[in-house]
């Protein structure tokens, strides 16, 4: 007990604010450490629809380490949260950490034709203009951003801290009864380059999209799935088309079971419904597990208690990141 008390005493005490969407995750983060205290914001709107916001006990956070847990789940909520993000550092706080588990415009990071707008750069510039608190630049915690080079889109007033959900996956894989029969598959070279160094002790399979006439089909580029429980790994999923194509190819080549992991389960228009549970049967018909994190709270609510989905919470790694 003495060591536990000493640990809490030595921890940085953090006042954690959060948007409404992230209430459940914020409570899980606070339960990880006595050094994290939840604080509230009143989220209202005026009759014209613009935000009417109030930060409770603003004087009470002077000189404190302050964090805000954000969710930019749609363009409509970004403005009200930015208003809070810009306000908190100006309340004489000691330091400010912005936790944005999912960076939503990360896939729009490059131009393929003149006139394309790289909105990842736009959002990075907006966040880079966060006012500097008394202790120095704002820390920005993001999990598995789509492209690591997006670090360089941010200005000097903000310090991007890129974390990963892969350790959560590794821990879960070790708990499986067939943990010694796991192979990992990547839907493309980009996913392999991104994650293979964190997963080196597993046999690996790399898929690729190959142009055949007017179609682009998924093929296995490296590795053998025969007889293995294959887990497809990627940073995010939208419609799920690429994952289902990978599933078909892996099943065709003899995979015993197929599961998937993505850090960010976006699933617009309830596209998660296309993923069925295999019910112990053929991997062609469904997945054994589909792991996501709680970075996208709306998806978490939709897939609750629905197989094959299982949520791995970011609460512990976020609590740890708040101590950096």
UniProtKB/TrEMBL annotation:
Domain Ribose-phosphate pyrophosphokinase N-terminal: 15-128
Catalysis: reaction(s): D-ribose 5-phosphate + ATP = 5-phospho-alpha-D-ribose 1-diphosphate + AMP + H(+)
MF annotations from Gene Ontology: ATP binding; kinase activity; magnesium ion binding; ribose phosphate diphosphokinase activity
Domain of life from the UniProt record: Eukaryota
Any one GO cellular component localisation term in the record: ribose phosphate diphosphokinase complex
GO terms of biological process kind: 5-phosphoribose 1-diphosphate biosynthetic process; purine nucleotide biosynthetic process
SMART domains: Pribosyltran_N
Entry keywords, A to Z: ATP-binding, Kinase, Magnesium, Metal-binding, Nucleotide biosynthesis, Nucleotide-binding, Transferase
Record has Metal-binding as a keyword: yes
Ranges where the Phosphoribosyltransferase domain occurs: 221-264
Record EC number: 2.7.6.1
Similarity-based family: Belongs to the ribose-phosphate pyrophosphokinase family.
Species lineage: Eukaryota, Viridiplantae, Streptophyta, Embryophyta, Tracheophyta
Presence of keyword Nucleotide-binding: yes
Protein name in the entry: ribose-phosphate diphosphokinase
Xref: InterPro entries: Pribosyltran_N, PRTase-like, PRTase_dom, Rib-P_diPkinase
């Amino acid at each position: 007990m003495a060591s536990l008390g000493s640990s809490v005493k030595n921890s940085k005490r953090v006042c954690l604010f959060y948007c409404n969407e992230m209430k459940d995750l914020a409570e899980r983060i606070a339960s990880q450490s006595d050094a994290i205290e939840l604080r509230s914001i009143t989220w209202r709107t005026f009759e014209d629809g613009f935000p009417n916001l109030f930060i409770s006990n603003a004087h009470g956070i002077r000189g404190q380490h302050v964090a805000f847990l954000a969710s930019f789940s749609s363009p409509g909520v970004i403005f009200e949260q930015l208003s809070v993000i810009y306000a908190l550092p100006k309340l004489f706080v000691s330091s400010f950490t912005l936790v944005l588990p999912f960076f939503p415009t990360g896939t729009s990071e490059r131009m393929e034709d003149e006139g394309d707008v790289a909105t990842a750069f736009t959002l990075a510039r907006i966040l880079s203009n966060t006012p500097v608190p008394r202790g120095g630049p704002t820390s920005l915690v993001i999990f598995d951003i789509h492209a690591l080079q997006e670090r360089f889109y941010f200005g000097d007033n903000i310090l991007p801290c890129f974390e990963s959900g892969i350790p959560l996956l590794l821990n879960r894989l070790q708990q499986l009864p067939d943990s010694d029969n796991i192979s990992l598959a990547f839907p493309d070279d980009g996913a392999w380059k991104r994650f293979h160094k964190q997963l080196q002790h597993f046999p690996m399979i790399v898929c690729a999209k190959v142009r055949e006439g007017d179609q682009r089909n998924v093929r296995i580029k490296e590795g053998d799935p025969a007889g293995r429980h294959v887990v497809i790994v990627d940073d995010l999923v939208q419609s799920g088309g690429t994952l289902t194509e990978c599933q078909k190819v892996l099943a065709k080549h003899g995979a015993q079971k197929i599961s998937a992991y993505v850090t960010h389960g976006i699933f617009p228009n309830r596209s998660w419904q296309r993923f069925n549970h295999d019910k112990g049967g053929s991997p062609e018909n469904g997945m054994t597990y589909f792991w996501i994190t709680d970075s996208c709270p709306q998806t978490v609510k939709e897939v609750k208690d629905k197989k094959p989905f299982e949520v791995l919470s970011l609460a512990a790694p976020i609590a740890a990141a708040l101590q950096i």
